[in-house]
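Predict structure. Input: Aldose epimerase, 296 residues.
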Amino acid sequence: MYKVKTLSENGLSFIELQNSTKTTTAKICLEQGARLQELKFNDVYLIKEQPNFDYASSYASSILFPFASRIKDGKYRFHGADYQLNKNDAGKSALHGLVYDKKFDLFEPEEHQHCCFATFNYYEYELSEGFPFTYIISVTYTLFEDHLRMNVSVKNTDDKPFPFTLGWHPYFNCSDFKNSNLSFSSDKKVVFDKNLITKEVVAEKTPEVFNLEDKQLDDCFILNDNKVGFSTPDYKIEISQNSQENFLQLYTPKDVPVIAVEPMTGISDTFNNKIGIQVLEPGRTFSLNWNLKLIN
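Output follows.
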């Protein structure tokens, strides 16, 4: 029987999903945007907190909404009006959306023989200057023995439409970059300026096996399909999402044994360059699944 447990650590609230032997677990933090702090399959940690790698600067496993990555100068124009977001990226750009530090509420956890799940909700009632719209965002984590499914849904509770993209910012453990690789299909790469704002999209076909040895990454790719594989000496996984347009951001922080493998529905400065941008009409709901599977 799978179990859903409530924990409290260092003044933060957590929900832990686990199988009966506690060899497969997922740990979610309510106060940090319902992020996945830890993930373990078959006693192997895929995601785990790293020393001296603070969440406030790493955004590890954060849900990115209403935009992923950066908005240049925090400025954008939508339906004839100009907006100014908070420039939380060293005063240069708006970074990683608005819900990564919000407190989510636990809703309707369920325990079953072969899985368990919990839903986390955040209700935005305030009209911020940079994004003056109300919405509900829900994140449901469903844990199986070798599979984690995340469903994110956003409902526009305002009387006006708003623009959005969605992203997820997980860092996966990687103890041996020399013998690790990614696999994904792309023939277009995003070129950034010095502030990691999109300059252009160029034709560049990635190799079938994308080796990580000696690579320092902060790169974005437009995917031809919705799947990304990641293989290390410790585990092998496949990440997929069910969106129509699929983008992949890769980032390797210096001197930390992790890699960010980020599925997104848009790219840096989406609100301005319109690549991947979507519009959610009043009363409508958008839903997206991310699936993470352990490959034997």
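The chain has a mean pLDDT of 97.
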